[in-house]
Design goal:
Order of helices and strands: HEHHEHHEHEHHEHEH
Structural class: alpha/beta
CATH architecture: 3-Layer(aba) Sandwich
Distance between the termini: 48 Å
CATH topology: Undecaprenyl pyrophosphate synthetase
Largest sheet: 6 strands, parallel
Strand order of the largest sheet: 3-4-2-1-5-6
Helix content: 40-55%
CATH class: Alpha Beta
C-alpha cells in the first residue's frame, strides 16, 4: 500500500511539473509560514521543535523554486506583531534565524546555485547579533542573481508603506524629487529592501495552516498585481512539494482565466 501511494505521488508530481513548465512563468512566490506551533502541539512536541521543523521546510521550498526557475521567494519569517510573543519564544526564534543565516552564508548549495539572501523589514528592531548575521549573509551572497531569498524579518506591510512614504517625503523636501514625479513606479522603488533590487510584484501568495488571510504581508506588491492567493490546510512543517506544485499550478490557471475574461471584455 505504501509503495502504491509513493508511486502515485511521484506520478502526480511529474504531471504537475509538466503542466507548470507549459504554463505562465511565476516570477515571485511569497509564503506565510503558518502552523509551526500548532503542528508541534498536535504532535506532542516542544513548541520550539515546530519552528525548527518549519525552517527545514523553508529550505526545501527554496530548492523547489530553483527547480521551477522562480526568481524571488519571500518568506514571512518574523512579523512586527511577533514581538508580542513571549521572551522565551522570541529568544529561540532569533537564535534559530541567526544560525540559519550563518549556514546560508557558507552553504555550498547557496553559492553553487547563486542564491541572494536578503532581509526585508525594520531590521534595526532585531537584536544586534541577528543584524550582524543578516549583514554577513548579505555580503556573502551580494553578487548572486539566480534566486532572491527575501526573509521578511520585523516586517509589517503598513510599516513598509509608512517607511516608503517617509523616505519619499524627505527627498521631496530636499528637492531631489518633485511632487509631480511621484507615481506608482517611483513608490515601488522605495519599498524594501534598499539595495537597488526591490522586491517585485507578487504572482502568488501561499498561506499554510488553514487560515484565509494575508496578514499585512506585502500589500503593495500583492494587491497592486492582483496576485493569486493559495490557502491550504497543512501546517508549515508538513507542507509537501506536491502542495507547492498545486499552488503554482492554481496560480497559473487563474492568470489564464483572467486573461480570457479580459479578452472578452468581461
Amino acid at each position: 500500500m505504501a509503495n502504491s501511494l509513493a508511486l502515485a505521488y511521484t506520478l502526480y508530481e511529474r504531471i504537475l511539473k509538466r503542466r507548470i513548465s507549459r504554463g505562465v512563468h511565476m516570477r515571485h512566490v511569497a509564503v506565510i509560514q503558518d502552523g509551526n506551533r500548532r503542528y508541534a502541539r498536535e504532535m506532542g512536541l516542544p513548541m520550539n521543535s515546530g519552528h525548527s521543523l518549519g525552517a527545514r521546510t523553508t529550505e526545501l521550498v527554496s530548492d523547489w523554486c530553483l527547480e521551477l526557475g522562480i526568481k524571488h521567494l519571500t518568506v514571512y519569517a518574523f512579523s512586527t506583531e511577533n514581538f508580542n510573543r513571549s521572551q522565551e519564544e522570541k529568544k529561540y526564534l532569533f537564535e534559530l534565524i541567526h544560525s540559519k543565516l550563518l549556514e546560508l552564508s557558507t552553504s555550498e548549495k547557496v553559492h553553487r546555485n547563486q542564491v541572494r539572501v536578503r532581509a526585508i523589514g525594520r531590521t534595526e528592531m532585531l537584536p544586534d547579533c541577528l543584524q550582524e548575521a543578516i549583514a554577513t549573509a548579505d555580503r556573502a551572497t551580494r553578487d548572486y542573481k539566480n534566486l532572491y531569498l527575501n526573509l521578511a524579518l520585523a516586517y509589517g506591510g503598513q510599516c513598509e508603506l509608512a517607511d516608503a512614504a517617509r523616505s519619499l517625503a524627505t527627498r521631496v523636501r530636499q528637492g531631489s524629487i518633485r511632487p509631480e514625479d511621484v507615481d506608482e513606479d517611483l513608490i515601488g522603488r522605495y519599498m524594501y529592501p534598499f539595495d537597488g533590487v526591490p522586491v517585485p510584484k507578487v504572482d502568488l501568495i501561499i498561506r499554510t495552516g488553514g487560515e484565509y488571510r494575508t496578514s499585512n504581508f506585502l500589500p503593495w506588491q500583492a494587491n497592486g498585481n492582483e496576485c493569486a492567493a493559495y490557502f491550504c490546510a497543512p501546517y508549515w512543517p508538513e507542507f509537501r512539494k506536491i502542495d507547492f506544485l498545486r499552488a503554482v499550478r492554481t496560480a497559473q490557471s487563474r492568470v489564464v482565466q483572467a486573461r480570457s475574461l479580459k479578452s472578452t471584455g468581461l
